[in-house]
Design a protein that fits this description.
The chain has 14 helices and no strands. The protein is mainly α. Helix 1 runs antiparallel to helix 11, helix 3 packs antiparallel against helix 10 and helix 7 packs across helix 9. The radius of gyration is 19 Å and the shape is globular.
Length: about 300
C-alpha cells in the first residue's frame, strides 16, 4: 500500500537512517528500558491505527487468523528486544551496542539449518566465525581498561540480537499479512506483555521526564517506531532480499557516526576492526552471486 506514496528503495534508506539515530534520542529519556519500550509501542500503535482509520483500510482477520499467533509471538519478542537494546545503550556506547545488535543476521544463518533443515555452506561458516571474531574484538577481551559495564552492555546487545533474530525467523512463516498490518499487530502484542512487565518492575515514572525527555520520547515512539517501522516492513515486501540487505547496513553506519561525531564516544582500533568484521562478513553472507539463483 505504502509503495503508492514512496519508492520502496527510498523507504528503506529513510527507515535505516532514522533507525541509526535511535541511540541519540534514547540517551535523553530518563525512564526505565521497559517503560520506554511500552511507550514506544503505544505511541506507534496509536499512530498506525489513526492512519488505517483515515485510509479506511481494515485488517483482513479472516484471511490471516491462522498467522495471528505467530504475529503475537513475534510482537512479544520485539518488545523485549527493545528492552535489551535500550539497556545496551545504558551500559556501553551506542556504536558498540549497535554493532553487537547487528550480530542478529549471523544468528539467523546458524538457526536456519536447525529450523529449516538447510545446510550451511563453507561461505556461511566463514562468515559465522569471522563475525564471531568481530564480537570478541568489540568486547575488548584482554584489555584491562575495559570496564564491566561495557561487557554487560555487549551482553544486552547480543540478547537483543537473539530476540531480533527470533522476530526475523517468525516473520518467515508469516506470508499473508501486509507490512503495516503486521507492524500494528506486533505492537499490540508488545503492549499486552509490556504493561504487566512495567507494572511489576519500574512502574510509571513519566512525571520525572523533563521537556527534552518528552520531545525525545515522542520522536522515538512516533517517528523511530510508528512511521519508520511501516516504511521498513513495507519496503521489504517490494525489494529483492539482497538489495534490502545491503541498504540495511545504513543503520549501523549512521549509529557509529552519531556515537563518535555527535555523542563524542570513543572507539578503540580493535573495536573498529571488530565492527568491520561483523558488518563486512554478515553483508557478504547476504550477497548472492549473479549466476546463482535467488529467491
Amino acid at each position: 500500500m505504502m509503495k503508492r506514496f514512496m519508492n520502496p528503495r527510498l523507504m528503506l534508506v529513510i527507515s535505516m537512517t532514522v533507525f541509526g539515530t535511535l541511540g541519540l534520542f534514547v540517551r535523553n529519556i530518563s525512564v526505565s528500558s521497559g517503560e520506554l519500550a511500552l511507550y514506544r509501542a503505544i505511541l506507534a500503535a496509536l499512530l498506525i491505527a489513526v492512519f488505517l482509520f483515515f485510509t479506511k483500510e481494515k485488517i483482513p482477520f479472516r484471511e490471516i487468523k491462522k498467522e495471528i499467533p505467530l504475529l503475537l509471538l513475534s510482537g512479544v519478542a520485539m518488545g523485549f528486544n527493545w528492552i535489551f537494546l535500550f539497556e545496551a545503550y545504558r551500559y556501553t556506547t551506542v556504536s558498540v551496542a549497535t554493532l553487537s545488535y547487528y550480530f542478529a543476521p549471523v544468528i539467523v544463518t546458524v538457526a536456519c539449518p536447525i529450523l529449516f533443515k538447510e545446510k550451511m555452506s563453507a561461505k556461511q561458516w566463514i562468515c559465522f566465525f569471522m563475525s564471531t571474531l568481530g564480537i570478541i574484538l568489540i568486547t575488548g577481551l584482554g584489555d584491562l581498561s575495559v570496564g564491566n559495564n561495557h561487557f554487560v552492555g555487549i551482553l544486552f546487545g547480543l540478547g537483543a540480537a537473539c530476540l531480533y533474530a527470533t522476530v526475523i525467523l517468525l516473520n518467515k512463516f508469516i506470508k499473508k499479512v501486509e507490512g503495516i498490518h503486521r507492524t500494528l499487530l506486533q505492537f499490540i502484542a508488545a503492549i499486552l506483555v509490556l504493561v504487566p512487565y512495567v507494572g511489576f518492575t519500574s512502574g510509571v515514572t513519566l512525571a520525572d521526564l523533563n521537556g527534552t525527555g518528552w520531545v525525545c520520547l515522542l520522536i522515538v515512539g512516533l517517528v523511530h517506531t510508528g512511521v519508520t517501522y511501516c516504511l521498513y516492513f513495507s519496503s521489504l515486501k517490494e525489494l529483492p532480499g539482497q538489495k534490502a540487505a545491503i541498504l540495511s547496513y545504513i543503520d549501523p553506519l549512521v549509529a557509529v557516526l552519531v556515537s563518535v561525531l555527535i555523542l563524542g564516544e570513543d572507539m578503540a582500533v580493535m573495536q573498529v576492526i571488530g565492527g568491520v568484521l561483523i558488518l563486512g562478513f554478515t553483508l557478504w553472507n547476504e550477497i548472492t552471486p549473479k549466476n546463482q539463483k535467488t529467491d
